[in-house]
Amino acid sequence: MSQKVNLEKKVLSENDLLAASIRQELEAKGIASLNMVSSPGSGKTSLLEKTLAELNNELRIGLIAGDVQTENDANRLIRAGGKIVRPLVTGGACHLDARMISRVLPEMNLDNLDLLIVENVGNLVCPSSFDLGEDMKVVLISTTEGDDKPLKYPAMFRRSSIMVINKIDLLGTSEFTVKRVKENALQINANLKVFEVSCRTGIGLDAWCDWVKQLVAEKQGVSA
Ligand code: MG
Ligand code: ZN
To answer: How far is Cα 193 from Cα 214, in angstroms, rounded to an integer?
Structure first.
């Protein structure tokens, strides 16, 4: 057992070193970066499609679409107007790690990017342990899930800076309440910033996109 623990520690510390060098590279080029995490089906790809539709003309956005199999999500993002989209098929791994990111970054011409968004594999467990060099993790939860997920998967909510509650248009069709999910999430991480959106109807997307723009502006202000 201790061997397994040591191996995990070694893998994670190697990951942290690589993530630090990715972070340094992005920082040097003034690129803001987000790591999108959630269960499968919470709407990560949908949110990115809507974000592209709104911001594609103003910002140069690079996207890395992680999945266990298929390039379906990468293709959706290309159809949504994504100009710099790289699929990252893990072939079985249930999370992305910094090594995978460092393999695709050289194909992305970082000199031409304002913002890098990584869509992680749909999984609320181990993606929380793997730093990818991002500025922050954004965790999505949808109203069709249990509002106790922040309590069940605390590490993910603790390590995220933002929580996006998606499918707000479906409130009332289940026991899920915004009040409860916020209480549960803030109990785990009092600093979480929360957005309530519906990618289907468009509710709340303006606030989200404004925040993304502000993040990029701050980043460029700092690096300028
Ligand atoms: Mg997806
Ligand atoms: Zn995993």
So the answer is: 14
In DSSP terms, 33 is beta-bridged to: 116
How far apart, in whole angstroms, are the C-alpha atoms of residue 75 and residue 85?
8
Q: Which pLDDT score, from 0 to 100, does residue 222 have?
A: 63
Q: How far apart are the C-alpha atoms of 46 and 207, rounded to whole Å?
A: 16
Q: How far is the CA of 71 from the centre of ligand 1 (A)?
A: 10
Helices 205-223 and 44-55, interaxial angle, to 10°? 70
Q: pLDDT below 70 — which residues of the chain?
A: 1, 222-224
Q: How far is the CA of 145 from the centre of ligand 1 (A)?
A: 16
Residue 223: predicted pLDDT: 54
What does pTM read for this prediction? 0.95
For residue 193, give the CATH number of its domain.
3.40.50.300
14: containing domain: 2-220
Q: Angle at the Cα of 135 (from 133 to 137), degrees rounded to 5?
A: 90
Residue indicated by tokens 């107007």: 81
Kindly give the distance from the C-alpha atom of residue 156 to the centroid of ligand 1, in angstroms, as a whole number: 17
Residues 6+ apart with CB under 8 A from 113: 29, 31, 60, 61, 62, 84
Chain center to CA of 188: 19
Tally of structural domains, the chain: 1
Ligand nearest to the CA of 127: 2
Other CB atoms within 10 Å distance of the CB of residue 56: 14
3-state secondary structure of 99: helix
